[in-house]
Write a structure and sequence with these properties.
binds manganese (II) ion, alpha+beta
Length: 744
């Protein structure tokens, strides 16, 4: 096990400014926290965080990252708490360790292979600091290196997860060395036979080519020395998993692979790359079509290198990569190398490897700047540009309680979540719990949220949800469900209208009878016909006539009135004598209103009712409030209840009365009366109302003092004029103290 001073020394070789005390504190704290724990291998648990720290020290990462590596399992696996870590190591390291704890918790969630891409995105998205991902990858690498000690079943699962999630993540971060090792370690457990076959043949091939490789390397070195070029020549062997997947991909045998061995020439600067290329091409013949210059044209992921294939000393093909040290670091270590070399890139472009200590510590400052940019969150694009790492800032990733991962666009709400799970779940959703707490459905979901949708059977999504949903799927499903609900309401209303008008004609209405008569009506189903009656498009008399062709045309009032149904909903807007003017529409809509179909589209299909208490009477200035999914509720303009809608002007609908002289409907109104307590005072009040032609619906005593009584009287009146007559009549009586109208 690496000793405390060894670790500190290693970090200080590349970062002389590293906080020695911090590293020592983290070492001791983690060692004590894990003191009695053992790994599957039997080693003390502390050997694991220590190895992870060593991997990151090899990547030359900053002291905070190394300390985080030492502490990364403490919150989850020991008594340590986030607060304690904060107190001892500061908020920065506290946040880093917390990020790793969060990822570790995600590991407990079952992950299906097809969700691997989403899961990778989730990892990146919740790791607001790139160093969290670096520690996580090092953590996984060490766990993979020691996988042989884990039980076989679990071993395979971890290997699969590494192949599906962590190796591609390393690739995305440009850390190809790490990716290759993760892939190889996974391959070994996922396909032991394939792994062994490749390794065996590689061993044989290596033996066979031993002299050749050295020969080529020597030839290259000699030539470069001749031309006075300082460069490092190395050979590399393709990794078993890369070989295997290329064999699979191209359907070829191992012997047919031409790039198992490759050679790499590392130079100090860019000019030397081209000089090396010149030497190589004048010495050996280049294979046509194999030359690529990624130095002047870097790949999207910042990869830079010159690729060429030559015919070597023994007439065999030799693949060559020529690049600078810095380009090599980027190719191997990706994001981590960027952190190290950023300053040199922007600086004088001199050899990076010999960069002065202060330049290197500037690199860590650059890394911290990136982190700041990310934490402040005001310019995530800038971060992306610097790291070429997609952060998926336009997406959030949430879980169902059973661990299913749901990817949603940013701004998504539990309503979107519910519809993403299943349309039926969305349609029956009535509430939500986020991370175990009841939260409003308008809550914006955040990465890693666990969302539980609360469902109720008899629920139709209110159309207003269309506005709190951001996904197209949720919105169109809500529209469909709303339309269907409105249709059903009209169907219900239509059936009631028919039942009543059939009764008037001495018949019972039955759906079966309507079904049999459909061929005489312009509708193909009973539901369509009922909805048409409810909407007022199909006169009930037509239906009666279709069902009983022998019944002569009935006497119908000049204007067919529709009474309130059980729930207080009216049918046709025309039937209750209202004209509608839609916000933003011109006076032309009045003409539309005169046709009895005041509005087009979905809104026009909505049922209308009066506010349940203190409703309006003709003559009152009125306003309609649109309740999506329900309909329009009419309030007098001075109704207290309207205050609730002040913030939602889009729900206000301009309506006016359209009442004829021969109006036969009464409208509810409420008055408050204070009367002196004397025998017969109540009778006098009732008498005045009766004489004025008003109906008393209900009287409620609200205050009963020794000398006076206050009461609320529910009336039915023709209109405002009628109501005012009643009020004046009451005021004229000596027993009456005050009279006022009550608005709901
Ligand atoms: Mn760990």
């Amino acid at each position: 096990m690496m000793r405390q001073y060894e670790l500190v020394e290693r970090v200080r070789t590349y970062d002389p400014d590293a906080d020695e005390a911090l590293l020592n504190r983290a070492y001791v704290y983690a060692m004590k926290a894990h003191s009695h724990q053992k790994r599957a291998s039997g080693d003390p648990y502390f050997s694991h965080p220590l190895e992870v720290a060593a991997i990151l020290a090899d990547l030359k990462l900053d002291d905070a990252t190394i300390a985080t590596a030492l502490l990364h399992d403490t919150i989850e696996d020991t008594e340590a708490t986030r607060d304690e870590i904060n107190d001892l190591f500061g908020g920065e390291i506290g946040a880093l360790v917390d990020g790793l704890t969060k990822i570790k918790k995600l590991d407990l969630v079952t992950k299906k292979a097809e969700q691997a891409e989403n899961f990778r995105k989730l990892l990146i998205a919740i790791s607001s600091d790139i160093r969290v991902l670096l520690v996580k990858l090092a953590d996984r690498l060490h766990n993979m290196r020691t996988l042989q000690y884990v039980k076989p079943g679990k071993r395979k699962r971890i290997a699969q997860e590494t192949m599906d999630i962590y190796a591609p993540l390393a690739a995305r971060m440009g850390m190809h060395g790490l990716r290759e090792e993760l892939e190889d370690l996974s391959f070994r457990w996922l396909n032991p036979n394939g792994y062994k076959a490749v390794v065996d043949r590689l061993t044989a091939l290596r033996e066979q080519n031993k002299g050749l490789i050295d020969e080529i390397q020597d030839a290259l070195r000699t030539k470069l020395e001749e031309y006075g070029i300082q460069a490092e020549v190395a050979s590399r062997e393709k990794k078993p998993h890369s070989i295997w997947s290329k064999m699979e991909r191209k359907q070829i045998s191992l012997e047919q692979l031409s790039d198992i061995y490759g050679f790499r020439v590392l130079t100090d600067d860019e000019d030397d790359c081209y000089r090396v290329l010149g030497v190589v091409h004048t010495t050996w013949r280049a294979v046509p079509g194999r030359f690529k210059d990624y130095v002047s044209n870097p790949k999207q992921n910042d990869y830079q290198s010159i690729h060429t294939t030559i015919v070597g000393p023994r007439h065999q093909r030799v693949e060559l990569q020529i690049r600078t040290d810095r380009m090599h670091q980027v190719a191997e270590y990706g994001v981590a190398a960027h952190a190290l070399y950023k300053d040199q890139v922007n600086g004088n472009g001199s050899g990076a490897r010999n960069g002065s200590p202060s330049q290197e510590s500037n690199a860590y400052q650059w890394l911290r700047r990136l982190v700041d940019i990310l934490l402040e969150g005001d310019n995530p694009e800038e971060f992306l540009e610097h790291t070429k790492l997609e952060l998926f800032h336009d997406q959030v990733f949430c879980f169902t309680p059973k661990g299913r991962l749901i990817a949603l666009p940013r701004g998504a709400t539990p309503v979107d979540f519910a519809y993403a799970v299943h349309t039926d779940v969305g349609n029956s959703c009535v509430g939500s719990k986020i991370n175990g707490r009841h939260m409003p459905l308008v809550t914006e979901l955040r990465n890693g949220d666990e969302v539980e949708v609360i469902c109720s059977e008899a629920q139709t999504p209110p159309a207003a949800w269309e506005r709190i949903a951001v996904t197209g799927k949720a919105r169109s499903a809500i529209r469909r469900a709303t339309r269907e609900a409105v249709r059903q309401q009209y169907g219900k209303l239509g059936r009631e209208i028919l039942t009543r008008s059939f009764k008037r004609a001495g018949h019972d209405y039955k759906d079966d009878a309507l079904e049999d008569a459909l061929h005489r009506l312009p509708h193909s189903t009973v539901e369509d016909a009922l909805a048409a009656v409810g909407r007022g498009e199909l006169p009930s008399n037509d239906v009666l006539h279709a069902v009983f062709p022998d019944v002569g045309p009935m006497e119908v009032p000049k204007r067919q009135r529709i009474k309130r149904n059980e729930e207080g909903w009216f049918g046709l807007t025309k039937a209750i004598g209202l004209k509608f003017r839609w916000p933003g529409s011109s006076s032309r809509s009045r003409e539309v209103a005169a046709n009895g179909i005041p509005i087009r589209g979905l809104r026009g299909d909505l049922p209308v009712r009066f506010a349940s208490d203190g409703g309006a009477v003709p003559g009152d200035r009125i306003v309609g409030i649109l309740t999506p999914g329900e309909g329009i509720t009419i309030y007098p303009i001075h109704a207290e209840a309207l205050k609730d809608y002040d913030e939602q002007p889009e729900r206000w609908i301009d309506v006016t009365w359209d009442i004829d002289e021969d109006n036969i409907d009464r409208f509810p109104a409420q008055i408050s009366v204070t009367a002196i307590n004397e025998p017969g005072s109540l009778a006098q009040i009732a008498q005045i109302i009766g004489e004025s032609g008003g109906n008393i619906d209900n009287i409620k005593m609200t205050k009963h003092a020794a000398d006076f009584t206050e009461m609320l009287i529910d009336l039915e009146v023709w209109d405002l004029k009628h109501l005012n007559e009643i009020i004046s009549g009451l005021r004229s009586k000596s027993v009456v103290n005050t009279v006022s109208r009550v608005h709901g």
